[in-house]
């Protein structure tokens, strides 16, 4: 059915009107800035709320774990939630010198005299905050001062506007290149993981693994249950002797083989998890006996 000519004319008129620039009143400016601030703070507010629910265990009346709660209630994966919370910490750091400005803009809802109508050209990095987690994800691994510097430079590169995640990442890569530190690790070295603010390493504090690849800024490390590629600041060498490293490498292989068995008993993961967090180049007699017994149960033999 052809559109009604009157409807079409009305539509064009609306488009024409909406494309015109008109001045805002003081009250309208106040409301616009307040609403824009809500948009800018949306992901940050969500992350802060999730962090409080997690820390206070407010999910416990309906769900046994925070991970299950987030997946059931919001459809969020554990990784996504961890990224959000880590990103909120970056935003807090970026807001560190801007609290007075932020408070002033938030308070304008009740007092129009507290706000100044912004000038279009009055923008800089200290006045612009991230609006999404992806914009701050590259900053998570930097030190607080470097985070602020990188964000300021990204805003400048974006022409005084909110930069994209790609622009932020490019700036972070340049900073890392200028402050390049030789990778101190080597293939076969045994290290423990230091999660810090890396959401992928949540729950892995104290886990040890064997380095299988060394890059400029990162290493690939195998643990008893998976493989990670992490930056060097997330690793700490156990500084073992060569023969001790060989023992740990062999132990890691044995644990990984057990973990790969399908339909394994849950006790297998319990044993592997325990040994995978024991950063010692030996097993007690009982630990050795238990490991041998489980391997025999599933027909695994050392080669």
Account of the 3D structure:
With 303 residues, the protein is an alpha+beta fold. It has two domains: 25-116 and 124-178, no CATH class; 183-303, SH3 type barrels. Helices cover 50% and strands 8% of the residues. It is built from twelve helices and five strands. A five-stranded antiparallel beta sheet has the order 4-3-2-1-5. Strand 3 (218-222) and strand 4 (227-231) form a beta hairpin. Helix 8 crosses helix 9. It is elongated and about 80 Å long. The chain starts with a helix and ends in a 6-residue tail after the last helix.
Largest β sheet strand count, sense and barrel closure:
5 strands, antiparallel
Cα-atom Rg, whole angstroms? 27 Å
Distance between the termini: 76 Å
**Total number of helical segments?**
12
Order of helices and strands: HHHHHHHHHEEEEEHHH
Instruction: Decide which structural class fits the backbone.
Output: alpha+beta
Number of domains: 2
Give the averaged pLDDT, no decimals. 82
Question: Based on DSSP secondary structure assignment, what is the total number of beta strands?
Answer: 5
Query: In percent terms, what proportion of residues is strand?
Result: 5-15%
Percent in helix: 40-55%
As residue ranges, the low-confidence spans are 5-18, 97-126
Shape, please? elongated
Fold topology:
Elements: H1 5-18, H2 26-40, H3 42-56, H4 66-74, H5 78-94, H6 99-107, H7 133-136, H8 144-157, H9 165-178, E1 190-193, E2 208-214, E3 218-222, E4 227-231, E5 235-237, H10 242-259, H11 266-276, H12 285-297
Antiparallel strand pairs: 1-2, 1-5, 2-3, 3-4
Helix pairs in contact: 3-5, 8-9, 10-11
């Amino acid at each position: 059915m052809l559109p009604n000519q009157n409807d079409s004319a009305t539509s064009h008129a609306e488009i024409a009107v909406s494309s015109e620039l008109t001045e805002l009143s003081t009250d309208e400016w106040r409301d616009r800035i307040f609403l824009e601030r809500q948009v800018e703070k949306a992901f940050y507010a969500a992350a802060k709320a999730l962090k409080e629910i997690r820390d206070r265990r407010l999910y416990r009346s309906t769900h046994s774990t925070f991970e299950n709660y987030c997946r059931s209630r919001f459809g969020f994966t554990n990784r996504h939630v961890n990224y959000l919370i880590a990103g909120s910490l970056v935003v807090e750091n970026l807001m560190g010198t801007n609290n007075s400005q932020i408070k002033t803009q938030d308070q304008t809802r009740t007092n129009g005299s507290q706000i100044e109508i912004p000038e279009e050209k009055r923008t800089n990095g200290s006045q612009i905050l991230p609006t999404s987690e992806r914009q701050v994800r590259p900053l998570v691994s930097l030190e607080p001062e470097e985070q602020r510097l990188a964000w300021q430079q990204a805003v400048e590169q974006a022409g005084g506007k909110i930069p994209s995640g790609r622009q932020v990442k490019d700036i972070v890569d340049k900073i890392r290149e200028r402050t390049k530190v030789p990778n101190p690790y080597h293939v076969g070295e045994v290290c423990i993981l230091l999660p810090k603010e890396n959401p992928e390493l949540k729950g892995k504090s104290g886990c040890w693994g064997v380095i299988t690849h060394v890059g400029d800024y990162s290493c690939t490390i195998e643990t008893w249950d998976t493989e990670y590629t992490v930056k060097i600041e997330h690793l700490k060498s156990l500084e073992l002797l060569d023969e001790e490293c060989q023992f740990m490498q062999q132990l890691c292989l044995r644990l990984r083989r057990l973990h790969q068995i399908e339909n394994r008993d849950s006790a297998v993961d319990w044993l592997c998890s325990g040994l995978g967090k024991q950063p010692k180049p030996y097993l007690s007699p009982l630990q050795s006996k238990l490991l041998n017994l489980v391997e025999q149960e599933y027909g695994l033999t050392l080669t």
